[in-house]
């Protein structure tokens, strides 16, 4: 079977498709014949050598797959054989086969394509954790989604629209029209405008009740400043670490120095909240995740959850797929198919 291997730190040319032996599931595990797998910004950061939680090179990454169970360990109920599923995999999902514990597997609704199912786990669980589980977003509140045109951004927009919150979003200009059609109320071109000044103008100086910040560094300082009283900001990414100029290690140090540190007294005096979200370190919370998936799948049945797949690349075009995201061309999810 084939796997996509990040052979070492570098540009898209370090990505290779390699042939390895078929996998055998351990007790409690199933093997999925992968039909589609998600490409995430974390994979781009891993290849660049700036992702803090990355496995050592050479490595096969991939946090999410959809496919068909084609082999089970003896302890698993045989009813699972042949089922169409989606699953979370901490790494190794970008392959023709992946083995995962059964408790990381969910039945795929018939109404979802394999591509949509692979676009679901990371983006929707992250957005759910931020907006619902930790952020408690309400219908009378305002929300700023940074990178609103990314996979997580679009998932968050669907959830916020369902809740009825007023949405603001930052994205490259070319994505604004699409985002407006998806229900984003106010789009801000953060690459050519001072997004904080624009947001304060749009809110008559009040700021917003919640901000999703996947950028980190000094952006996180501005996000905190742009919160109204009772506002909360979720830090869930550090994409600023991919900016060009410095080498990987120096870029990480610069980003760390620029990211603000919050004292609890400061939060107490300001009536503000700050929290962090890291799905890749949450897979042990199986019960919570299953409840969140159930809630989200109910949304899918009702029609307000609808994963947007922007582009599908075959494994052999993995370099192009990475460049597509790195060059900020994607609106929503990029999917890989074996
Ligand atoms: N903590 C977690 O559990 C978790 C889970 C999923 C994702 N994340 C983080 O959330 C962020 C977005 O993830 P995603 O999967 O939604 O992204 P994505 O679909 O891959 O979209 C990436 C988009 O981010 C924007 N962007 C911002 N800074 C960028 C940069 N320096 N280089 C290239 N593009 C940049 C670009 O759009 P615009 O220029 O239009 O803004 C780009 O199209 C990433 O930082 C990711 O690591 C965190």
UniProtKB/TrEMBL annotation:
<keyword id="KW-0560">Oxidoreductase</keyword>
<dbReference type="InterPro" id="IPR013154">
    <property type="entry name" value="ADH-like_N"/>
</dbReference>
<dbReference type="Pfam" id="PF08240">
    <property type="entry name" value="ADH_N"/>
</dbReference>
<protein>
    <submittedName>
        <fullName>Alcohol dehydrogenase</fullName>
    </submittedName>
</protein>
<dbReference type="GO" id="GO:0016491">
    <property type="term" value="F:oxidoreductase activity"/>
</dbReference>
<dbReference type="InterPro" id="IPR011032">
    <property type="entry name" value="GroES-like_sf"/>
</dbReference>
<dbReference type="Pfam" id="PF00107">
    <property type="entry name" value="ADH_zinc_N"/>
</dbReference>
<dbReference type="InterPro" id="IPR013149">
    <property type="entry name" value="ADH-like_C"/>
</dbReference>
<dbReference type="InterPro" id="IPR020843">
    <property type="entry name" value="ER"/>
</dbReference>
<feature type="domain" description="Enoyl reductase (ER)">
    <location>
        <begin position="10"/>
        <end position="336"/>
    </location>
</feature>
<dbReference type="InterPro" id="IPR052100">
    <property type="entry name" value="SV-ATPase_mito-regulator"/>
</dbReference>
<dbReference type="InterPro" id="IPR036291">
    <property type="entry name" value="NAD(P)-bd_dom_sf"/>
</dbReference>
């Amino acid at each position: 079977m084939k796997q996509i291997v990040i052979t070492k730190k570098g540009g898209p040319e370090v990505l290779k498709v390699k042939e390895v032996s078929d996998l055998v599931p351990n007790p409690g595990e199933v093997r999925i014949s992968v039909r589609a797998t998600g490409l995430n910004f974390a994979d781009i950061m891993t290849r660049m050598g700036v992702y803090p939680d990355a496995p050592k090179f050479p490595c096969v990454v991939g946090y999410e797959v959809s496919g068909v169970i084609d082999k089970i360990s003896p302890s698993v109920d045989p009813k699972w054989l042949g089922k169409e599923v989606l699953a979370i995999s901490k790494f190794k999902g970008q392959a023709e086969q992946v083995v995962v514990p059964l408790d990381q597997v969910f039945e795929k609704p018939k109404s979802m394509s394999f591509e949509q199912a692979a676009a679901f786990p990371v983006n929707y669980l992250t957005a759910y954790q931020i907006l619902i589980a930790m952020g408690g977003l309400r219908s009378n509140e305002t929300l700023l989604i940074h990178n609103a045109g990314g996979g997580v951004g679009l998932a968050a927009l669907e959830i916020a629209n369902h809740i009825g919150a007023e949405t603001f979003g930052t994205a490259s200009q070319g994505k604004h029209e699409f985002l407006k059609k998806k229900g984003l109320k106010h789009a801000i071109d953060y690459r050519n405008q001072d997004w904080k000044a624009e947001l304060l103008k749009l809110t008559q100086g009040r700021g917003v009740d919640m901000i999703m910040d996947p950028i980190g560094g000094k952006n996180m300082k501005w996000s905190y400043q742009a919160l109204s009283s009772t506002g909360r900001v979720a830090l869930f990414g550090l994409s600023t670490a991919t900016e060009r100029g410095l080498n990987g290690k120096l870029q990480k140090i610069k980003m760390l120095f620029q990211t603000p540190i919050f004292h609890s007294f400061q939060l107490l005096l300001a009536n503000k909240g700050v929290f962090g979200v890291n799905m890749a370190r949450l897979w042990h919370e199986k019960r919570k995740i299953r409840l969140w998936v159930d809630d989200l799948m109910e949304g899918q049945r009702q029609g307000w959850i609808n994963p947007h797949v922007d582009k599908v690349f075959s494994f052999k075009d993995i370099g192009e797929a990475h460049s597509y995201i790195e060059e900020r061309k994607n609106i929503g999810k990029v999917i890989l198919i074996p």
